[in-house]
Structures are given as structure tokens and as C-alpha cells.
């Protein structure tokens, strides 16, 4: 399976994921209390431990006080070093929006090293490959967000189709709030980075 779940200290999901779907459960120190209250036991706690009162003796933990990187980045580096190829990230948004943007920037930094998919109660979102096929999405709202530019974007299966469009974070078309007319949607682009948001 080679897949990890990572919990951050943002807006907590109201529907907990099925942790048996993952090989390892990791949380940052600020997320540990939420997992404890949700009766989920992580395999590892990582961070600078500025958000946890008492470390549990029965759970492995790694203290990484380096202030030059976020706890999210520390966790990603650890998972990459352990050979994980895919991670689902929970509670990356909400509470403090600068943290959310920082998390998106970190995800882009590790784009080539590990597949990162974010989940909250309303959406899943990730940086798309240059050719991405979305399955079982008919009727769902899909937003395309350039980060900061995406070139020659073409889509099939969306209500408002795109054909060799340039999307720009500043001043031009960004592609939010589109709708899937078909069960399978294809999105492609030539250059840049594209953040996809899919209604859950």
C-alpha cells in the first residue's frame, strides 16, 4: 500500500478517515490532542513540540525544533526518507489562512518527491499532473486554480470547457467553480502548476 496519513493542526475533519487504509499515521504535535479525542492512535508524532503539553510514552515521537521549516515540511521529509510515495493530509486548512497558503507552497516544493492529497469536510485538493483524469465526479464542483500561472489548459467533461487557456492567479482567468457534466473529467496543461479542488 505504501500510503501515509498525516494530520496537521488546522480545521479538524468531522468525519474521521478510515485509518486502516494507511500503512502509517503521522501527526504534528498540535494535532495529537484531536487524534486522542477521536480515538485514533498515531504511529508517530513529529514537530517542535510547542503545541503539546505532555508527550505520550507509548507513541514514537521525533523532536525537530528547527524553525526554518514548518512541522508539515518536517513530516513530509520524514515520510520521503522512509520511502513513502503518497500521503493524504488532513486539517491543512482553516484557523489561520497564512498556514494554509504556507502548506500549499510546501506541497508544491515536494511535488516531485511525493504525491500529496489534501482532504477536508468539503473538498479534496492537490497539484495536478500535466495530464490528469478525475473519475466518479459527475455533478461535483471542480475548481482549477493556477499557482501562479498555468499554460495551455484544456478540459473535457466540464460545464465550462477550457481550450488552450492560460490561467493566472493575478488579473486573468483562474477557473474556479466549474461543474463536472461527466463521470470522467480530463484536464491537461503544458507548463506551470495547477491546484485542483474537487467537491467531496
Summarize the structure.
The chain has 200 residues and is α/β, with parallel strands linked by helices. It has helices spanning 32-37, 71-81, 97-109, and strands at 3-7, 24-28, 44-47, 60-63, 86-90, 115-119, 123-127, 131-135, 141-156, 165-168, 178-179, 184-188, 191-199. The chain has two domains: 3-121, Rossmann fold (3-Layer(aba) Sandwich); 127-199, Sandwich (Jelly Rolls), CATH 2.60.120.320.
List the helices and strands and how they pair.
Elements: E1 3-7, E2 24-28, H1 32-37, E3 44-47, E4 60-63, H2 71-81, E5 86-90, H3 97-109, E6 115-119, E7 123-127, E8 131-135, E9 141-156, E10 165-168, E11 178-179, E12 184-188, E13 191-199
Parallel strand pairs: 1-2, 1-5, 2-3, 3-4, 5-6
Antiparallel strand pairs: 6-7, 7-13, 8-12, 9-10, 9-11, 9-12, 9-13
CATH class bucket of the largest domain: Alpha Beta
Question: What oligomeric state do the depicted chains represent?
Answer: single chain
Residues in β-strands, percent: 35-45%
Number of strands: 13
- Number of helices in the DSSP assignment: 3
Biggest sheet overview: 13 strands, mixed
Number of domains: 2
Q: Structural class, from helix and strand content?
A: alpha/beta
What is the CATH third-level topology name of the largest domain? Rossmann fold
Give the ordered list of helices and strands.
EEHEEHEHEEEEEEEE
